[in-house]
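INTERNAL AUDIT FORM
Audit reference: QA-55
Scope: verify that the stored structure record matches its stored sequence.
Auditor: D.O.
Record contents follow.
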Amino acid sequence: MVNLISATYLLKIQLKGDEQMAYQIKVSIKDIEPVIWRRLRIPGNITFQQLHQIVQAAFGWLDYHLYKFECNKIVVTIPDDDYAPGELYGEDITELNSKITKINELFDANDSCEYEYDFGDSWEHEIIIEKRLKDTKKNGIPECLNGARQSPPEDVGGTGGYKNFLNIIKDKKNPERAEMLSWAEKDTKGRIFDPEYFNINEVNRRLLYALEDDKEHAEKLLTGNGLTGTLVWGWSDICIDVKGKRYTMEHISNLLLRIGEGSKVTIQVEPGRRY
């Protein structure tokens, strides 16, 4: 009987150790009314670099600029070799590398943090940790639960520039309106910019690949033997199906940009049946 009880106890401890955590967070862009926000369910074992990629996908940012996370007196970002520790943020600030620091190192002890994207436009996001969950899905894929409104166009000039942009596009008599709408299509993939637009299906399609949207994954997927699969029709674009996973042309384009302009690219097609 003693051995049976001990075995049962050890089994429970082992199962608890194997549980993977997840977080439900609400991310809101600060200083804009009405609020632009996303509620996300994210894996608990990711790095802050991966959280950055998730927020970029959730809001439709294009990842053109630098970023940092702040929590109390801790800054998590990509280290800048041009500055000595303490020189950029101050001696009383602890600086951590976002590529290796896991979010649970800060999220388990704090209820919120701030994320700043683009130090020029300075888009500040408030991240509220709403729930700490057991990750029952265990597929490692982040998910948008709900949200509201389109994020501002990249390089619009921060909150002040965005307000000016909205005033221009709302005024059909403004001579700059057509030009500004055309310029904003880079952020909407050709759709007319609508500040109230939010499509949760589009957001979750972007999130499917958010954790792979970096240089390391791009090189692993596209260099060497390259990307080999079957051409199929996806949600709204042609895709390459690789062992059941579909890569859109948009996602492949993003990965090519990660590898770098000037890289040699070869496209080879073995024709299949025609429709």
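Auditor finding: record pair retrieved intact. Confidence is low (pLDDT under 50) at residues 1-18.
Action required: none
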